[in-house]
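User: Show me a protein chain along with its predicted structure.
Assistant: Here is one chain, sequence first, then structure tokens.
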Amino acid sequence: MALFRLKDLSFFAFALVICIVSEVSGGQKGVTKITDENWQQVLEGEWLVEFYAPWCPACKALGPTWDAVGDWAADLDINVAAVDVTEEAGLSGRFMITSLPSIYHVIDGEFRRYMGPRTENDIITFIEDRKFHDVETVASWRAPDSISMGIVSFIFKVSMKVRIFHTIMTEEYGFPWWSTYGFVAVATVIMGLTLGMILVFLTDCCCPQKPPKGYERSRLPEEQQATPPTDINESEEEKEDKKADEPEQKEEVVDKAEGKEEEETTLRQRKTGGNEDGEDEGESK
């Protein structure tokens, strides 16, 4: 009985040691799950990030290799991570994932796309031999931490929300598929018009457009353009004096007109008188 107890104790101790070793080795490094909440941790240190989807056959084939690379993370002094694009649509847009699986190498905020062979040995050699220095970094405007890609990430998140809304409305509440798409289309148009009006209003307030030179003067009649500008600060007494002088000016104009008419009549009489005297002299001769 004592022999069996010693065997049981030795087996139990051996199993306990195996469990402790496996826990310690597994807790050092491995494949880190990256989400939209903690993705900014890849901006510090050196990372290898895989983007995959559970339904993708190529991603399934790469799975064991990626786990093996994760086991080498401690020796390589890097971090190995994975992103499920079906759950993290925002990161899919932020990194502009167009094919699966996709692998990114990130070191101190510099992003590079890994396009080499997807074997364990090739990926480890890529890190050990520092071959990533031969790969061109992603352009600044396409970097995942840029403002432009943040906007793209927001659009991808909204599209995922719309997809979830469509699924709930059609499967749980039984609405026809066209009704949800119609609702989303109308909401999109209304939001676009509202944002457009807000932008136009802000533009007019911040940067008002000045009229071209001579525009206001060209709209005035010719008579108003020819007349010199009047004194705005003209007193009321001067205005009354001008009104009082207007009848006198009119009388002077009338007198001048009558004088011209009298002169014209006298001239006509002289002419007619001269003609009559000439005729009388002719008859007498």
